[in-house]
Amino acid sequence: MNILVVNAGSSSLKLRLLGPGDALLAAVDLRAREGRPNPDEVTAAITDLARLGELGAVGHRIVHGGTAFTDPVVVTDRVVKELRSLAVLAPLHQPAALAALAEVRTAAPGITQVACFDTSFHARIPPAAATYAVPADWRDRLGVRRYGFHGLSHAYASRRAAALTSGRRVVTCHLGSGASLAAVRDGVSIDTTMGFTPLEGLVMATRSGTIDPGLLLWLQTSAGLSADELTEALFHRSGLAALAGTPDMRTVVNRAVTGEAASSLALAVYLHRLRAQIAAMAAALGGLDTLVFTGGVGERSATVRAGATDRLGFLGVGIDPERNVAHADGDHDITAAGSPARTLVVEAREDLEIARSVRVCLAGQLPR
């Protein structure tokens, strides 16, 4: 059965047609000039891909499933309605995913669509990791808890690490424009760095990561900023962009190498938070067998990998400098000789995880 995988970003749309054995039959990347990609271009691309072979199903990456969706689900009108209600929790991505659902329905009517959630992988983390110390009414009535994100990437990366090593305790580092970590034991997520929204945790390209909530109260009550102003600043004008004037890690690293002060500080802040959170994930696991880097920054930045692991020797982490800087396609091992913990670079393949989730959903099985 051929499966079309749809990954809708805030300003892009990635389409992957996977055949038997997860063979990649075709790939189309559409980017927007302003806002979402042109719907007519999306419809034309989906129609063209569907012509390449009998299309059995479509799998969509949906960022937020809330508490209602902890496993992949066949898309119905009821499901779409519930997903719309969650858009406020993932304003960068949920509206784009909902638009893609509608565009696929127009281009390929009658084809079964399956929603696959970034939150699903973390839906069963222990209560100690999921619970905020806030009033019970917030937790019980409003559903305030730590959800976690990038679950499709973490699920694939941890499963791939298990295939390449024998380690049971894995920390996966999804580092891209958005960034998060997961603590995975025997293929099951037990902790993660993102929380109620994709804003918590690591420093990201334009997102702040964790900051003191008291600061937000002060900015509202004393500095007069509105909730909309805070949202726009924390999601779009913070992170690397705020510290270095650019959200692009390659530019930050290149400028830091030359000694440019703002970029040097930005990289130092990024790595400080990253190292601390890797250690926290290892603590949740009770140790570390395998450390995995994935995502655009995780796969391509030898500087970030070297900086992140430089002070993690107490966890048994050590990387080989030559392997780390070698340009290698696909998955590769960068572990230093004699290091107890393995360190891997794993190609991000959310498309394979989505296709897997589609198959188990349509087979009536739980995905994990």
List keywords for this structure.
12 strands, 368 residues, single chain, globular, 41% helix, six-stranded mixed beta sheet, alpha/beta, 18% strand
Structure description:
- By secondary structure, this protein is of the alpha/beta class.
- It contains 15 helices and twelve strands.
- Strands 3-2-1-4-6-5 form a six-stranded mixed β-sheet, sandwiched between helices. A six-stranded mixed β-sheet has the order 9-8-7-10-12-11, sandwiched between helices.
- Strand 11 and strand 12 form a beta hairpin.
- Helix 11 crosses helix 13 (302-309).
- The chain is globular, with a radius of gyration of 20 Å.
- It starts with a strand and ends in a 6-residue tail after the last helix.
- The mean pLDDT is 93.
